[in-house]
Amino acid sequence: MTVAEWCVFGTLMLSLLTIVSVKWIGFRRFDNSKPRDPDFFDDPIRSRALGAHQNGIEAFPFFAAAVLLAEFRIGPLRLIDELAVLFLIVRIAYVFTYIGNRPTLRSILWSIGFAINIAIFFLPAIRGYLKS
C-alpha cells in the first residue's frame, strides 16, 4: 500500500476517533442504547466534536476518490503521498480547532484541505508539466 492509501485509512479513523473520544470521556452520560440522543450533545464540546465528526464524514469521499483517481491515472506518486500526508495533518488540526471553538482558523484549515484535495485530483492532468 502507498503512503497516500494509508492516509485515506487514517482520515477515516480520524473521523471515527473524533466522536468516539467524546463518548468515552462522557461514558457516564452516554447511553449506547440511544447513540444519537441529542441530549448527550447539548454540551458545547460534545456538540463541536459531533460537528467535526460529521465534517470528516463529508470530506472523506472526495479525498479517497482523489487519491485513488490520482494513483489509477498514474499521477506522480511521491507528490500524491506528500499531499495526502499534508491533508491528514490539516484534518487533525481542523478537528482540534473545531473542538477548541476557533471558527476562523477552522475555516482556513478547511479551505486548505479542500485545495489539497483539488490538487491531488488534478495531478494526473498536470503530470506532464511537473518535473519527474
Structure commentary:
The protein is mainly alpha-helical and 132 residues long. Helix content is 75%, strand content 0%. α2 (44-72) packs antiparallel against α3 (77-99), α2 (44-72) packs parallel to α4 and α3 packs antiparallel against α4 (103-126).
- Overall outline: elongated
Category by helix and strand content: mainly alpha
Mean pLDDT: 92
Which consecutive residue ranges, at least 5 long each, have pLDDT under 50? none
* Rg result: 17 Å
- SSE sequence, one letter per element: HHHH
Explain briefly what this protein structure is.
With 132 residues, this protein is mainly alpha-helical. Helices cover 75% and strands 0% of the residues.
Topology summary:
Elements: H1 3-25, H2 44-72, H3 77-99, H4 103-126
Which terms summarize this structure?
mainly alpha, 0% strand, MAPEG-like_dom_sf, single chain, 4 helices, MAPEG family protein, 132 residues
